[in-house]
Design a protein that fits this description.
By secondary structure, the protein is of the alpha+beta class. The protein has one domain. Helices cover 22% and strands 59% of the residues. The longest helix has 14 residues.
Length: 189
Amino acid sequence: MQKRLFHLLAAVLIALPFARAHADEYTDTIRVFRNAGESGKFFADSYGYAVFPVIGKGGMVVGAAHGTGRVYRHGKYVGDTSMTQVSVGAQLGVEAYSQIIFFRNKAAFDLFTKGNFEFGAQATAVALTAGASAHAGTTGAAAGASGNQKSAKTAGKYYRGMAVFTVAKGGLMYEAAIGGQKFSYKPRK
């Protein structure tokens, strides 16, 4: 059983860099967060945001996650971003989720677009498309729960100029781990 899970995890993590999000996925993901409770309120007063339609994650004691996204300033697409995470702790399974990071002001936006390494701690439980999560780190704190993308609920607030929200897409994962995230940014040409 562990060997099969390890092979599944390896296959998911190897395939992730080759998966590209389509333009419609960005529009759909933004729509989910606009309609998901607290996160919808952040669009009105944020300086900008980074949206990741799909972040794939897997772990068995050691875990990894990766996703690509787009960065928006005042609602306009200005660049591309990627997120890579490595974590260690009690974790088992694979999951996929969407994420959005709001920037309250230009200073927070500039910090993100220069590249930011974050240490964080998180606890997650995901079963198929139902999930609950909590996260705290140097870029902020977030909490969320969702039945699926159509009935997503989010809660959160700005911390050091950033607010992070996630919505479970699917999978089966339990996690209580410490990890580091690295974000990269490339301006749109």
